[in-house]
Amino acid sequence: MKKFIFIIIVACSVSFASQTNAQCLEKGKIMIDVYYGWPNLLSKALKTFYITGSTYSGYKATSMGPLGGRFEYLLGGKIGLGLEVNYANSGIEWTETPYTYKVSAPRLSIMPRFNYHFINKDNFEMFIAAALGYKSWNINFETNDPNYSGNISYNPSSFGYRFAWGMRLFFTDNIGANFELGVGGALLTGGLTAKF
Length: 196
Hints:
The protein contains two helices and eleven strands. By secondary structure, the chain is mostly beta strands. It starts with a helix and ends with a strand.
């Protein structure tokens, strides 16, 4: 699968880089991306930790996101500044009659972002990005068991980051698709883009 994705990316890059010199991005343009990411690694970790090898039954795993949005203002054909906001949540719930237990891990990131657009063609562009900022990451454990004293709420870090490589393909002058591969958040994101 990794080789297939790599081959597609290289083929698209070579194909679009050799086409017309018209630019899809110009100074003063605003880009708004909405996206959904994959995988939610913390959800997988919670499932592994709590469910695999457990003697209890009736576990319910929940997962949301990562989902988010990006705003970017083009300072020129190659440089853009903006903001990225994303949210994800992971959880496990189970019952040991008559009590219920729940572990949840909501995460919210708000980060200023810098993009360098190294390919800027008629309907296609590629960029590298760096974002640094705030990340709220809580791990909560709740139960209605009066004999259990392990209720916790833990916030391991307030620093968020993302380093990524991405591309946008425009179907019309103002609407397109976005794709990003990176670290610090979802490994892969994909969604829709609006350009103003």
